Amino acid sequence: MSNPFDRQVGGDYYKNYKIQPGLFIETNGIGWMKGEAIQHVLRMGKKGDWANAVRDAEKAKDYIDKWLHLHAPCEACQPAAKPEPTVTDSTKWSGIMDRLGLHTERNTLGDLLKGCLLGGLEAEADELRALPSRVPGITNSLNLGAFLELMEGTDAKKEADA
Predict the structure, then answer these.
(1) Amino acid 87: pLDDT
(2) Is 84 a domain residue?
């Protein structure tokens, strides 16, 4: 059987590298989004016209933006701080968990964050990312039942301060 990396269907912009991007990406376990970004960067300018080069650059940037959105571990990568939680937060999060089919005993805060991202609840995902810096005890591995208890405590403190 011939080596499939000796050929390329639909062009030669990958085939001419000493190590083909697909082999490099798979061998090193880079992952789909970062791998797509790498492939589009390597393809820039190889299709012969400026419009295609710009399109490949935009595609690479799109994959990088998506990866950063899902994996933003640092404060510099996080969106601007949202207002402090309101007295209705525990009720709000309970309703979102119900809509996403999440359970207080079986699921974690990380599951809630993923559910918000996949469910198009960007503002809620941003708020969840910001909570660990504002509410002690919040981590992605926190059980959702414990999360609701912490949020109820935050609600009660805000009511007492008001």
Answers:
(1) 36
(2) no
